[in-house]
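Name: YceI family protein
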Amino acid sequence: MKKNFLNIFAVVAIGLAVVGCKEGKEANTTEPEAAAVTEVTAQKYKVLTDDSTIEWKGFKPTGTHYGTIKLEKGMLNLEDNVIQSGSFLIDMTSITVNDLEGDDKADLEGHLKGSMEGKEDHFFNVENFPTGAFEVTGTSTDADGKMMLSGNLALKGNKNNITIPVSFTTSGDDLTLTSEAFTIDRTKWSVNYSSKSVFEDLGDKFINDEIELKIIIKATKA
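Structure predicted for YceI family protein:
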């Protein structure tokens, strides 16, 4: 009886470790769509890359890792105070781990970037795929009145359309766009390392397919 209780406790503990820290809902993911067209009258906003970031979290049974990724460049276009179109490049070489220090930090960053010999394609292989991209395909409003931003997310040579909840504000010449935390299934972008949905017999040596992301963009009138 005691052994059975301990086994049940272990399963529950692993479950809490896997899902307990996740905050975001999975983004609706579909086939790529045509990019939105920019009207001549649209107000253009240039992304301020030093002030913009993508926050990420990864999950596995033994814990969570998190960090940031920088943007390389981008532009957002507004018409009648609605995001009409736009795009930004993601600097995958800037992947940073913020929850570790020293050699552990360097090792995980190297593994994620694929700069470790024999592990180049485990995650993002930034030598072959140094940038990702997001291009706006449209906006909508959900049943709760939230603004939903749709766009093609390209990572590691794969492109899928995602729809995520966002909010934005303008003040003078400045614009701030922030997404809610959301998750994507990394295997849809061929990031398959230690995925239970791809490989069998991993036991508890797996990494969750879901990556949590939060996009924060600062921009100014171009």
